[in-house]
Amino acid sequence: xxxxxxxxxxxxxxxxxxxxxxxxxxxxxxxxxxxxxxxxxxxxxxxxxxxxxxxxxxxxxxxxxxxxxxxxxxxxxxxxxxxxxxxxxxxxxxxxxxxxxxxxxxxxxxxxxxxxxxxxxxxxxxxxxxxxxxxxxxxxxxxxxxxxxxxxxxxxxxxxxxxxxxxxxxxxxxxxxxxxxxxxxxxxxxxxxxxxxxxxxxxxxxxxxxxxxxxxxxxxxxxxxxxxxxxxxxxxxxxxxxxxxxxxxxxxxxxxxxxxxxxxxxxxxxxxxxxxxxxxxxxxxxxxxxxxxxxxxxxxxxxxxxxxxxxxxxxxxxxxxxxxxxxxxxxxxxxxxxxxxxxxxxxxxxxxxxxxxxxxxxxxxxxxxxxxxxxxxxxxxxxxxxxxxxxxxxxxxxxxxxxxxxxxxxxxxxxxxxxxxxxxxxxxxxxxxxxxxxxxxxxxxxxxxxxxxxxxxxxxxxxxxxxxxxxxxxxxxxxx
Length: 480
Description:
Layout: E1 5-7, E2 14-16, H1 24-46, H2 86-104, H3 107-112, H4 116-121, H5 124-128, E3 136-150, E4 153-166, E5 169-182, E6 185-188, H6 191-205, H7 209-221, H8 231-241, E7 256-266, E8 269-278, E9 288-295, E10 298-306, E11 315-323, E12 332-342, E13 345-357, H9 362-365, E14 366-379, E15 385-397, E16 406-413, E17 419-428, E18 440-446, E19 458-466, E20 469-479
Antiparallel strand pairs: 1-2, 3-4, 4-5, 5-6, 7-8, 8-11, 9-10, 9-12, 12-13, 14-15, 15-18, 16-17, 16-19, 19-20
């Protein structure tokens, strides 16, 4: 740039030229130079001489499940390392024994490797689930060891490195292990198997004391976890973490309100009307309910009901029925169990719910009235006139439901008590329309024996028939 002022080639006016700037190339070069200097400094720092003795390395806070929170490693004296401690070495030996027992299918050795609390919570069948016929394991070592005091004593957690051999290939993997130090030394705290056992027992028997006890065991034996103090909330987390549960958000029995609204008795069958309400925040699908009716603890009949999907907050009505071989003769008390599908298993929704089926006597449903007593003239077999006793009656349905069958029985006898005739009268028969509630039907009946030229007083007993049962309505009615 020769000068700071130049003349315009067109008009000749002086133009002030801009001040000179640093070339862009210099700026870029400066930035790259600064970066290179920083990298060289970091490289030199990394290769500084280290102390010959080992130092404590930071412990990783690896969380293996959502219910677990971070914790701090315990304080150690200077020069002692996690890797060299007797506790960690004992844990390594315990892990080796554990995988050897798995490979050898040794259930007793597996149980011996576990803490006393685990052995009390897990059955032999629970332990057998650990045995794998398709894979072999080899323990390599422990990483990220942490310690913390808990309700059951000194506890530890670490990531176990091991190889898995199966189907012609070998792969390396990691699995979180938890430990409890007991009087006999370090033992495994198998939280995963405890969670699986909780799910099994809950689905089989509901929210029993044993299920609650095992949930408490998870809290006491796992100080690294932030288990909810509420048992139902903790159970929801257990379902999410258990490998047995196929639902991310299961609907639990306390999410469903089951209510019996009425029941009914019809000869050899009894029925229940009920409602269910979905109190969870999701749709309740596959709502297939199974019912067991029990008397004195023994199942006497079963029923079922297939419902539509129930939306959150929705209440629906339905019913089910039970067949009884002998029917109900009198008012009877039962207990009811209701099951629904949870994680693919039949789970108790309601257990031992008291249910009473009231058998209404026919005399409580039918009102019988004698309208008139008289004598009629009829023809005998020989076509002679004959005087016979007659009773006119009226029947009213005083119940709520229609009456499909009403049968009356008339037993005629002399004043001395000798039975002279029996007559059955179907007020409502099999071919008749049912007698609706509050509906009235009238009729009359004759005695089958009469006398010529005179009226002979007779007595009549009137019964309401119910199969083989006879309900007395009127006794000793005299027609004269």
